[in-house]
Every structure is written in structure tokens, then in C-alpha cells.
Amino acid sequence: MFVEPHINNRVERKAGWIEVICGSMFSGKTEELIRRLNRALIAEQKVEIFKPSIDKRYHEKDVVSHNSRAIRSTPVDFANDILLKAGNCDVVGIDEAQFFDNSLVEVCEKLSYSGKRVIVAGLDMDFEAKPFEPIPMLMGIAEYVTKVHAICATCGNIASFSFRLSDDTEKVKLGEKEAYQARCRTCYQEGMKQRFND
Ligand code: ZN
């Protein structure tokens, strides 16, 4: 489990840092983000949470994970809005980060250089098992990367892939439970082969 670095000399430190929490659907990314943010809140740090306004699956202003533990958040249209709205907070959480464009990378860098702890959660691969930017780029520049895993819905092994159950090919399709399964590499590949043969 991720343990925060020692930050007792924080006042003298100029730069913050970047954490990435990534993985497939149903891997507990948002739960892990909420866990870290809750601990910061308990320590009375100022926390701001952002998510792309495209993600309207649940309540407009909450970061909600599938198990419904929620933290209030601000929906934004563009990554740059985060810079304007982050204010003087200590910790910035960003959920569903794969729905922002690559400008999120620079936004996270700026936030961290201004002394903030930035925690970004998002899908690292799309439904075609291709790297889903900007998460891979953020992984490259982050101090800490945590890849969380789901359980394969087909065989019970560790799962890293988001298998789309429909033949839909649009890249951005929000992750309702019915539309996807978490799958291991083998079961993902078998599913894709089957689809190709049909
Ligand atoms: Zn499997």
C-alpha cells in the first residue's frame, strides 16, 4: 500500500510532487484516491478535487467511487481550469484524468512546482489495450506511480485490461458496469479474438 513520504519539513520545501494511481476499470483507482485524500483531510490539509465535467455518471459535484464513498469535487471543462481553481490548497486530487487532454501534464507540473501534492487517478489503457494519454505521460514525470488491479471477471486472476462488452468503437465511453469487464491478459485476448471471428 502507498505510504506518504515524510513531509515534516514541508514549510521549507518549494516543490510538491506528483502521484499517479492507474489501472483498469474496477481496479479501485477512485477508492485509492479517496483514501489518500481522506488522510490529508484528517491532517487538516487543504484539499481540492477536480474531475472532467464530461463525467456526469453520478452526482455533479462528488467524486464518487463505485462503492459510494464520496468526496465533494469541482467539475471542470479543461485541465487549465484546475490551475485557476486550485487556489492555496495543499493537495490537489484529479479523478478520471484520462478524459483530460495532454495539457494536464503541464498543469500537474505547474501545481507541483508551486508546492502542491498532486494525486492523479485514471485509466492507463483504453478498451483496445492501448496506452490512454495523458496517464502514460503523467506516469513518466510522476514521483510515485501505483498501478492497482481488478479481478478478472472471467477467470479470477489479476486483471489489468478493460474489456468492452459491446462492439462500440468510440474511445470515450463512460464506464458503466454493464458496458465493461475487467479481464486478465489471456481472457482479454480471447474475448478480442472471439469478437474478430464473429
Ligand atoms: Zn482471466
Distance between the termini: 42 Å
Please bin the fraction of helical residues: 25-40%
Architecture of the domain at 12-148, CATH level 2? 3-Layer(aba) Sandwich
Secondary structure tally, helices: 5
Shape: elongated
Q: Hey, roughly how much beta strand do the residues contain?
A: 15-25%
Largest sheet: 6 strands, parallel
**Structural class by secondary-structure content:** alpha/beta
Global Rg? 17 Å
- The name of the CATH superfamily of the domain at 12-148 reads P-loop containing nucleotide triphosphate hydrolases
Order of helices and strands: EHEEEEHEHEHEEEEEH
Structure description:
- With 198 residues, the protein is an alpha/beta fold.
- The chain has a domain at 12-148: 3-Layer(aba) Sandwich (Rossmann fold).
- Helix content is 26%, strand content 25%.
- It is built from 5 helices and 12 strands.
- It has helices spanning 29-42, 80-85, 103-113, 135-141, 185-197; strands spanning 17-23, 47-52, 62-64, 70-72, 74-76, 91-94, 117-123, 144-147, 150-151, 158-159, 161-164, 180-183.
- The strands form 4 sheets. A 6-stranded parallel sheet has the order 5-2-6-7-1-8, sandwiched between helices. A two-stranded antiparallel sheet has the order 3-4.
- The radius of gyration is 17 Å and the shape is elongated.
- The N and C termini lie far apart (42 Å).
- The mean pLDDT is 88.
- Zinc ion (ZN) binds at residues 152, 154-155, 157, 183-184, 186-187.
